[in-house]
Amino acid sequence: MSIKQFNGTYHPREDRLQVRLNTPNDEEFKLWLTRRLTLHLVHFCEQFALKRLSTKHSPDIIKDLDEFEQQALKQKADFSTAYAPSQKLPLGDSPILVTGITLKAIDQSDSSQVNLSFQLENKMNLGLTISREMLNSIRLLLDELVSAAGWNRNTVEATEQGPAGPVANPATLH
Length: 174
Known about the structure:
Blueprint: E1 5-11, E2 16-22, E3 28-34, H1 35-54, H2 62-76, E4 96-107, E5 110-120, E6 125-131, H3 132-149, H4 154-160, E7 161-162, E8 165-166
Parallel strand pairs: 3-4
Antiparallel strand pairs: 1-2, 2-3, 4-5, 5-6, 7-8
Protein backbone atom coordinates (compact mmCIF):
# COMPACT_ATOMS: atom_id res chain seq x y z
CA MET A 1 0.00 0.00 0.00
CA SER A 2 1.26 3.52 -0.73
CA ILE A 3 0.46 7.01 0.53
CA LYS A 4 -1.36 9.66 -1.50
CA GLN A 5 -1.52 12.32 1.25
CA PHE A 6 -0.06 12.62 4.75
CA ASN A 7 -1.44 15.01 7.36
CA GLY A 8 -0.51 15.66 10.96
CA THR A 9 -1.80 17.73 13.85
CA TYR A 10 -0.27 18.30 17.27
CA HIS A 11 -2.72 17.81 20.17
CA PRO A 12 -1.25 19.56 23.26
CA ARG A 13 -3.64 17.88 25.71
CA GLU A 14 -2.57 14.44 24.50
CA ASP A 15 1.04 15.60 23.83
CA ARG A 16 0.82 13.48 20.69
CA LEU A 17 0.51 13.86 16.99
CA GLN A 18 -2.58 12.71 15.21
CA VAL A 19 -1.47 11.50 11.81
CA ARG A 20 -3.88 10.87 8.99
CA LEU A 21 -2.88 9.32 5.73
CA ASN A 22 -4.85 8.32 2.72
CA THR A 23 -4.03 5.94 -0.06
CA PRO A 24 -4.64 5.88 -3.82
CA ASN A 25 -7.41 3.35 -3.02
CA ASP A 26 -9.24 6.13 -1.13
CA GLU A 27 -8.65 4.55 2.28
CA GLU A 28 -7.80 6.68 5.31
CA PHE A 29 -5.84 5.62 8.38
CA LYS A 30 -5.79 7.66 11.60
CA LEU A 31 -2.90 7.14 13.99
CA TRP A 32 -1.56 8.57 17.25
CA LEU A 33 2.21 9.08 17.37
CA THR A 34 3.82 9.66 20.74
CA ARG A 35 6.64 12.14 21.18
CA ARG A 36 9.20 9.33 21.48
CA LEU A 37 8.11 7.53 18.33
CA THR A 38 7.79 10.76 16.36
CA LEU A 39 11.30 11.88 17.31
CA HIS A 40 12.69 8.48 16.46
CA LEU A 41 10.89 8.40 13.12
CA VAL A 42 12.28 11.82 12.20
CA HIS A 43 15.75 10.69 13.26
CA PHE A 44 15.51 7.44 11.27
CA CYS A 45 14.31 9.32 8.18
CA GLU A 46 17.38 11.54 8.50
CA GLN A 47 19.70 8.58 9.03
CA PHE A 48 18.16 6.82 6.03
CA ALA A 49 18.81 9.90 3.86
CA LEU A 50 22.39 10.22 5.13
CA LYS A 51 23.08 6.55 4.46
CA ARG A 52 21.79 6.91 0.91
CA LEU A 53 23.94 9.99 0.33
CA SER A 54 27.02 8.29 1.81
CA THR A 55 27.03 5.74 -1.03
CA LYS A 56 27.77 8.50 -3.55
CA HIS A 57 29.46 11.28 -1.57
CA SER A 58 32.23 11.74 0.96
CA PRO A 59 31.25 11.71 4.66
CA ASP A 60 32.28 15.32 5.21
CA ILE A 61 29.58 16.72 2.90
CA ILE A 62 26.60 14.38 3.31
CA LYS A 63 25.04 16.34 6.19
CA ASP A 64 25.21 19.55 4.12
CA LEU A 65 23.76 17.79 1.07
CA ASP A 66 20.92 16.41 3.18
CA GLU A 67 20.12 19.87 4.55
CA PHE A 68 20.22 21.28 1.01
CA GLU A 69 17.81 18.58 -0.23
CA GLN A 70 15.42 19.24 2.67
CA GLN A 71 15.50 23.01 2.05
CA ALA A 72 14.82 22.45 -1.66
CA LEU A 73 11.92 20.16 -0.77
CA LYS A 74 10.57 22.71 1.69
CA GLN A 75 10.57 25.39 -1.02
CA LYS A 76 8.60 23.28 -3.46
CA ALA A 77 6.36 21.55 -0.89
CA ASP A 78 2.64 22.10 -1.31
CA PHE A 79 1.20 22.81 2.11
CA SER A 80 -1.77 24.68 0.65
CA THR A 81 -3.64 21.70 -0.81
CA ALA A 82 -6.25 20.64 1.71
CA TYR A 83 -6.13 17.11 3.02
CA ALA A 84 -8.88 15.02 1.40
CA PRO A 85 -10.48 12.78 4.03
CA SER A 86 -11.89 9.46 2.92
CA GLN A 87 -15.05 7.61 3.81
CA LYS A 88 -13.24 4.26 3.83
CA LEU A 89 -11.73 3.85 7.31
CA PRO A 90 -10.30 0.30 7.60
CA LEU A 91 -9.11 0.93 11.19
CA GLY A 92 -12.20 2.87 12.24
CA ASP A 93 -12.95 6.54 12.81
CA SER A 94 -10.82 6.97 15.94
CA PRO A 95 -7.02 7.20 15.80
CA ILE A 96 -5.09 4.10 16.90
CA LEU A 97 -1.94 4.36 18.98
CA VAL A 98 1.28 3.40 17.19
CA THR A 99 3.46 1.25 19.46
CA GLY A 100 6.37 0.64 17.09
CA ILE A 101 7.80 1.71 13.76
CA THR A 102 10.00 -0.11 11.27
CA LEU A 103 11.70 1.64 8.37
CA LYS A 104 13.84 -0.23 5.86
CA ALA A 105 14.87 -0.13 2.24
CA ILE A 106 13.05 -2.64 0.07
CA ASP A 107 16.14 -3.26 -2.05
CA GLN A 108 19.47 -2.57 -0.33
CA SER A 109 21.12 -1.72 -3.66
CA ASP A 110 18.40 0.82 -4.55
CA SER A 111 16.99 3.04 -1.81
CA SER A 112 14.30 4.63 -3.98
CA GLN A 113 11.55 2.59 -2.30
CA VAL A 114 11.20 2.00 1.43
CA ASN A 115 8.89 0.03 3.65
CA LEU A 116 7.39 2.03 6.52
CA SER A 117 5.52 -0.17 8.94
CA PHE A 118 3.50 0.95 11.94
CA GLN A 119 2.86 -1.57 14.69
CA LEU A 120 -0.49 -0.69 16.23
CA GLU A 121 -1.93 -0.98 19.71
CA ASN A 122 -4.51 -3.49 18.42
CA LYS A 123 -1.61 -5.85 17.43
CA MET A 124 -2.07 -5.12 13.72
CA ASN A 125 0.60 -3.78 11.35
CA LEU A 126 0.07 -1.06 8.80
CA GLY A 127 2.72 -1.56 6.12
CA LEU A 128 3.34 1.06 3.47
CA THR A 129 5.66 1.06 0.46
CA ILE A 130 6.68 4.62 -0.24
CA SER A 131 9.17 6.46 -2.39
CA ARG A 132 12.23 8.15 -0.96
CA GLU A 133 10.65 11.48 -1.96
CA MET A 134 7.51 10.68 0.06
CA LEU A 135 9.67 9.69 3.02
CA ASN A 136 11.47 13.04 2.79
CA SER A 137 8.10 14.82 2.60
CA ILE A 138 6.91 12.97 5.70
CA ARG A 139 10.13 13.94 7.44
CA LEU A 140 9.61 17.58 6.44
CA LEU A 141 6.05 17.63 7.81
CA LEU A 142 7.10 15.85 11.01
CA ASP A 143 9.95 18.34 11.46
CA GLU A 144 7.42 21.17 11.26
CA LEU A 145 5.09 19.45 13.75
CA VAL A 146 7.96 18.67 16.16
CA SER A 147 8.96 22.31 16.04
CA ALA A 148 5.37 23.51 16.56
CA ALA A 149 4.99 21.12 19.51
CA GLY A 150 8.20 22.41 21.08
CA TRP A 151 9.67 18.93 21.29
CA ASN A 152 13.44 18.70 21.61
CA ARG A 153 14.98 16.59 18.83
CA ASN A 154 18.23 16.19 20.79
CA THR A 155 16.57 13.68 23.11
CA VAL A 156 16.72 11.03 20.35
CA GLU A 157 20.49 10.92 20.34
CA ALA A 158 20.50 10.53 24.14
CA THR A 159 18.11 7.57 24.04
CA GLU A 160 20.09 5.75 21.34
CA GLN A 161 23.09 5.42 23.64
CA GLY A 162 22.76 3.07 26.54
CA PRO A 163 25.23 1.28 28.77
CA ALA A 164 26.04 -1.09 25.90
CA GLY A 165 26.46 1.66 23.30
CA PRO A 166 24.27 2.34 20.28
CA VAL A 167 21.08 0.38 19.70
CA ALA A 168 21.83 -2.53 17.35
CA ASN A 169 18.92 -1.89 14.99
CA PRO A 170 17.60 1.62 15.62
CA ALA A 171 15.11 1.44 12.73
CA THR A 172 12.76 -0.82 14.67
CA LEU A 173 10.96 0.57 17.68
CA HIS A 174 8.70 -1.24 20.08
